[in-house]
Amino acid sequence: MPEPTEEPPEEAGGRLQHVVAARRDSLERLRGKGIEPFALGFDKDADAADVVAEFGQIEPGAETGARRALAGRVVLLRRHGRVAFVVIRDRSGDLQLFLSEDTLPAKGWALMDELNLGDIVGASGEVVRTKRGELSLKADRLVLLTKSLRPPPEKWKGIQDPELKVRLRPVQLFSDPVYREIVSARARVLHAFREELDSRGFVEVETPVLHPTAGGAIARPFTTHHRALDVDLYLRIALELYLKRVLVGGLERLRGKGIEPFALGFDKDGSTTWDGSSTWAGSGGGSPCWGRCPRPWAGRSRRRAGPSWSTWHSSTTSIPSRPGVRGSSSWSCSRSSWSTRCGSPRS
């Protein structure tokens, strides 16, 4: 797998091997000092954003007397003699750790010699603001939670190659907060969908992933073989095939959500899996869904996603309003399809 670098493969490979070897040596030195490089746990009681929201207004040089415990990945590391400044990043943002040889125990300060960018640490101590005005956690405890054996991408450029962004999603997520916000915004949109459908009496139903017959019209399915039953099966493409059967069973408003894989190729903008949601309403002639459902979904989803939604997805909705027409509508959500099926099981 290619590494997150823009340099020639020979030079990049040699440099990466050197860095990985140096970090493995650091790993062994930590164990030699009695420091476990992969801790079993750390009890944090706040996120970086919580500390900023609570103590963001204190004056430079002020001490709050309030203790907090945080954990995050090291994204910046500066050492000046007997003090060090480490910026950690958690799910909510960044916060600086103010580390001093006078306040840390010997084992905690010894950890500084082996700390690298990308390591995950936990720290607890008093919330202060430095004389230069940086809100910080003056740590009296520092714990290494995970030792990173590979270096993170370059700080300012990040991952430039579009293909590497797809191949190295975890690295892209921790190095670029924008992509983490995309994942969070998508989760909020899905929650808004569920809330809206729950309020309208739709029951969520799990349907089989393996089908005995290929569905999805002309789409080419993935195939597999069930050894115990000695039959060929197909990965589902259409959620509604089994939702229709449940509708016949008497549940008049249904919704299903799941991955729909089909072999249509892929590129940097899409893959062979389609995250779909299908809703069915019986005895409605199409109007209950088409006339009234899509518009509230769009409004609630926009509110839940927040302002970041429009910055990374310019065309937020493509939901037509056509009362009385049976068929499907799509709601674009991070390359996902949201189809609304209305009417009887025959539609």
Characterize the structure shown.
The protein is an alpha+beta fold and 347 residues long. It has two domains: 9-156, Nucleic acid-binding proteins (OB fold (Dihydrolipoamide Acetyltransferase, E2P)), CATH 2.40.50.140; 176-340, Bira Bifunctional Protein, Domain 2 (BirA Bifunctional Protein, domain 2, 2-Layer Sandwich), CATH 3.30.930.10. It has ten helices and twelve strands. The strands form three sheets. The chain has a five-stranded mixed barrel. The longest helix has 24 residues, at 9-32. The model is unreliable at 1-11 and 308-347 (pLDDT under 50).
Write a brief caption for the model.
The protein is of the alpha+beta class and 347 residues long.
Structural key phrases:
10 helices; 2 domains; 347 residues; four-stranded mixed β-sheet; OB fold (Dihydrolipoamide Acetyltransferase, E2P); BirA Bifunctional Protein, domain 2; five-stranded mixed barrel; disordered N terminus; elongated; 12 strands; alpha+beta; single chain
Return the CATH architecture of the largest domain: 2-Layer Sandwich
Form type: elongated
Radius of gyration, in angstroms, nearest whole number? 26 Å
Rounded mean pLDDT is 77
| Portion in helices | 25-40%
The fraction of residues in strands falls at 25-35%
Largest sheet: 5 strands, mixed, barrel
End-to-end distance, in Å?
Answer: 46 Å
Within the CATH hierarchy, at the fold level, what is the topology of the largest domain?
A: BirA Bifunctional Protein, domain 2
Q: Walk across the major sheet and give the strand order.
A: 1-2-3-5-4
Oligomer: single chain
Order of SSEs: HHEEEHEEHHHEEEEHEEHHHE
Given as residue ranges, the uncertain stretches (5+ residues, pLDDT < 50) are 1-11, 308-347
The overall strand count is 12
